[in-house]
Specification:
The chain has 98 residues and is an alpha+beta fold. It has two helices and five strands.
Length: 98
C-alpha cells in the first residue's frame, strides 16, 4: 500500500541542509531512496525498519527508525511514525546515526 509522506519542520530542515551541501550529495541520494521506499513499503527489507523508543509522534504515536545508509560512519537514518491519517507517514527526523 503506498503512503503519502509528510515532513516535520525538523525533517524539512535536515533535507534542505543535505541539498545545500554539495559534499553530502551521496547521502542526499541515499535519504531520497529511503523516502521512496517508505512511500511504497514501510517494511521494505533494505530499510531495516524497527521501533525507535527515544522519540514519539506528535500525538504519542510509536516511532520507527529506518536506514538510509548502513555500514557507513555516521550513516543517515529516517525517524517516522504512521499518521496523522490512514495512508500517511510523518517523517519526524532525518539524522546521522551516532
Amino acid at each position: 500500500m503506498p503512503f503519502s509522506l509528510h515532513l516535520t519542520d525538523a525533517a524539512k530542515a535536515a533535507l534542505g541542509e543535505l541539498r545545500r551541501d554539495g559534499g553530502l550529495a551521496k547521502r542526499l541520494k541515499a535519504v531520497q531512496r529511503a523516502l521512496a521506499k517508505l512511500e511504497m513499503d514501510t517494511r521494505h527489507p533494505g530499510l531495516h525498519s524497527h521501533p525507535f523508543r527515544s522519540l514519539t509522534g506528535p500525538n504519542g504515536e510509536e516511532a520507527f527508525e529506518s536506514y538510509a545508509e548502513q555500514d557507513t560512519p555516521a550513516a543517515y537514518r529516517v525517524i517516522w511514525c504512521y499518521g496523522p491519517a490512514k495512508g500517511q507517514i510523518t517523517i519526524l527526523a532525518i539524522t546521522r546515526h551516532p
